Amino acid sequence: MGKYEDVFQRSIQDPAGFWGEAAQAITWDKKWDKVLDDSKKPFYRWFTGGEMNTCFNAVDRHVNSGRGDQTAIIYDSPVTNTVQKFTYKELLDQVSRFAGVLKDSGVTKGTTVIIYMPMIPQAAIAMLACARLGAVHSVVFGGFAPHELAIRINDAKPRVMITASGALEGKKLLEYKPLLDKAIQEAEHKPEKCIIFQRQIVKAPLIAGRDFDWDELMAKAKPVGCTPVKATDPLYILYTSGTTGKPKGVVRDNGGHAVALCWSMENIYGVKPGDVYWAASDVGWVVGHSYIVYAPLLAGCTTVLYEGKPVGTPDAGAFWRVISQHGVKVMFTAPTAFRAIKKEDPNGEFIKKYDLSGFKYLFLAGERLDPDTYHWASKLLKKPVIDHWWQTETGWPITANCMGIEAFPIKPGSSTKPVPGYNVQILDTNGKQAGPKETGLVTIKLPLPPGTLPTLWQADDRFLESYLKVYPGYYFTSDGGYVDEDGYVYIMGRVDDVINVAGHRLSTGEMEEVVSTHQDVAECAVIGVHDILKGQVPLGLCVLKAGVTKSEEEIRKELSSMIRNTIGAIASYKETCVVKRLPKTRSGKILRGTMRKIADSEPYVAPSTIDDPVTLGEIEDALKKVGYAK
Ligand code: COA
Ligand code: AMP
C-alpha cells in the first residue's frame, strides 16, 4: 500500500484514532471526552467535551513557544503602496487590545459580530479578537451591496459591526461607510455599535453614539486574554449562496476546525512552521477565512494578506513580485486569476524579471481548472500546479494532491484524490454507486471530517434538507462528477442553481428573484454561461409583459443596474436576452440546463417532458442575436 492509501484508509476506518492523533498539534484547555460523537446522527460532532481557544492556538502559543519575533502577517497592498509586517508578538498585542475594545462594547462568548472590511490587516485582527472572546464573527465580502449585508445582519443579529472607511478596488475608490449605513437602515435588526477603521484614502463621517473610531478605541483599550470555549462552540458564520435569495449561514466550530486546518497545512500544502504561505483571495470568502487567516497562523506560518489584483496593480507581474519579494513557498488562488494574467501577458514576459527559486507549489481552487489554464500555468512556472476541490461548507479541501503525504502524477482536469477524512462516493440519481468514469452526483459518506459544517446557523432543518436528506447517510455536495479507474476525481460543475463567477460563488436563483421584480418582466430565468476570463457569467432570459415598448438595450441596462445595486458588482450581471417564451416541461419547470447548453453551443437533446419543442428553436435564435449559441 502506498503512503497515501495507508493514511487515507486509516482516516476512514478509524476516524477517531486518526483525528485524535492530529488533535495533539493543538493546545487544549480541557481534553475532549469523545473525538467523534455520533450520538445525534446524522449530526456528528468532533471533540465533544473538549475546550480550547482558536485565537490562543493561532497567536499566543506561537509567542509562548518562541516564535514571537517571526512575521505572522505580511500586508502587501500595491493599491496603497504599502508593505507592513506584523510579528506574532505584534499581532498578539493588536488582537488582545482589540479584544479589549470588543469586550468594552459588550461582546462576550457567543455574541455575534459582523465584519465588513476590505483586505487590510484589521480584518484579520478583528476576526482573531472575536475568536479570543469566544464571540462568533461573520465576515461579509466587501463586494456585496447593502441589501446583501442587510440580509446577513437580520440573520446573524450582530451586537457590533466592524468596517473600514473605504477601499481601493483596483483604481476605484469605494466608500464602505455609506454602504454600511444603508444596510443598517434597511435591516430590521439594529447593531448597537459600529467600529470604523479610518483609512488614509478616505475618511468616513461618524454617527455620534453609534459609530466609533478604531484607533481611538484602541488607544484606550486594555489587552484581554483568551476565553476557553467548547470545541463544538461556533467560531464563525459564513454566508454562502444557495439556490434562493436567502443565503446559507455555514457554521464553523472551534475544535475540529483548528485540528483539521492545522493538519491540512503540512499534509495537503506541504508547508511547515515558519514557511511563507499566500492565499490570494479575500477574507470575505471561505478561502480567506481558512487560508489567509486561520490555517497559516494555526500552523505557525507567515501569511500574506494581499490587497490587489492579479493584473492592473500595477501589471501582470504582480503575483511574481509578491512571491519573490516575500519568499512565498506555496500560493493558492483561483484559476480565473491565472486566466487574467494569461490574457495580459500570454508569453509570460513579466515572470522573467523575478526570482521564484523558493517557490514550490501553486494550488488552485474555487472553480474548475480548465486544462488550458493548467498547461499554461505549469509551463510558465515549471512547478507543480495543483487543482483541489472544496466548498464553503467543508472549509478545507475534499480532493487534492496531498503534497505532504504522497505526490501523485497530475491528470489535467482532475483534482486528484479524496483528502484523508473524506469518503467521496459518486452516486446515480437512484443513490446507487456509479462505476469508474460514470458521471453522477458527488457525495461524501458520513461522517464528514472535523472542520466541516456541523449545521447551518439556526437552521438545522435547512441543513438536513439541503445536504443530508438527498441521500441518507451521505453529504450531498451539489457537484456532478466522476472517478476514474485510478481513483482520480473529476468535478464537472454544480447541478443546482449556483454558479461560479471569477471564483465567486453566486446564486442564479437569487438573481432571478431580483430580475422578476422589474416592472416590465413577466417571467425570467437566469443561467450561468461560459466566459473565457471569469469561467461563468450570469445571463438573464426574460419574457416581457404585453405592451412593453422598451428596447432590449434599455431592459439590459436596467436589469444590470438592479443586480449591481441589490447583490453587488461582483455578480457581473451584464447580459439579458429578451425571448417570446421560456421552454418548460409539461409540469411547468423551466429548462435552465437545456438553455445553458444552447447558449454555450453544446450538443443538447430536448427532454421528453418538454411542453413545446418549438420554444428551444426560438431560444436559440434569440441567443444568437446577443452573441451566444454560435
Ligand atoms: N469590493 C467591491 N467591489 C468589488 C470587489 C470588492 N471587494 N471585488 C470586485 N468588485 C467589483 C469589481 O470592481 C467589478 O466592478 P465593475 O463591474 O464596476 O468593474 C465587479 O465587482 C466584478 O469584479 P471581478 O469579477 O473581480 O472582475 P474584474 O474584471 O474586476 O477582475 C479578475 C477579474 C479575474 C482579475 C478578478 O476577478 C480576480 O482577481 N479574481 C480572483 C478571484 C478570487 O480570488 N476568488 C476567491 C476564491 S479563491
Ligand atoms: P465555494 O463555496 O465558493 O468555495 O464554491 C464551491 C463550489 O465551487 C464547488 O461546489 C464547486 O462547484 C466549485 N469548485 C471549487 N473548487 C473547484 C475545483 N477545484 N474544481 C471544480 N469546481 C470547483
Describe the structure.
The protein is an alpha/beta fold and 630 residues long. A 7-stranded mixed beta sheet has the order 5-4-17-16-18-19-20, sandwiched between helices. It has a 5-stranded parallel beta sheet with strand order 7-6-8-11-12, with helices on both faces. A 4-stranded antiparallel beta sheet has the order 23-24-25-26. The model has no long low-confidence stretch (mean pLDDT 96). The site of adenosine monophosphate has 20 residues, from strand 25 and strand 26.
Helix content: 25-40%
Class derived from helix and strand content: alpha/beta
What is the first-to-last residue Cα distance? 50 Å
Uncertain residue segments: none
Mean pLDDT, nearest integer?
A: 96
Share of residues in strands: 15-25%
| Biggest β-sheet strands, sense, barrel | 7 strands, mixed
Q: How do the strands of the widest beta sheet line up side by side? A: 5-4-17-16-18-19-20
The best one-word shape is globular
Bound ligands? coenzyme A, adenosine monophosphate
Number of helices: 18
Rg (C-alpha, Å)? 24 Å
**Count of extended strands:** 31
List the helices and strands and how they pair.
Layout: H1 3-13, H2 15-22, E1 34-40, E2 43-48, E3 51-52, H3 54-67, E4 71-77, E5 82-87, H4 88-104, E6 112-116, H5 121-133, E7 136-139, H6 146-156, E8 160-164, E9 166-169, E10 172-175, H7 177-186, E11 193-197, E12 211-213, H8 214-220, E13 229-230, E14 234-240, E15 248-253, H9 255-267, E16 276-279, H10 286-298, E17 302-306, H11 318-326, E18 330-333, H12 335-344, E19 361-364, H13 371-381, E20 385-387, E21 399-400, E22 417-418, E23 423-427, E24 440-445, H14 460-468, E25 474-483, E26 489-494, E27 498-501, E28 504-507, H15 508-515, E29 521-531, E30 535-544, H16 552-566, E31 575-578, H17 592-599, H18 614-625
Parallel strand pairs: 4-17, 6-7, 6-8, 8-11, 11-12, 16-17, 16-18, 18-19, 19-20, 30-31
Antiparallel strand pairs: 1-2, 3-13, 4-5, 9-10, 14-15, 21-22, 23-24, 24-25, 25-26, 27-28, 29-30
Helix pairs in contact: 1-2, 3-4, 3-5, 3-10, 4-5, 6-7, 9-10, 12-13, 17-18
Bound molecules: coenzyme A (COA) and adenosine monophosphate.
Adenosine monophosphate binds at residues 240, 286, 365-369, 387-392, 415, 477, 479, 491, 494, 500, 505.
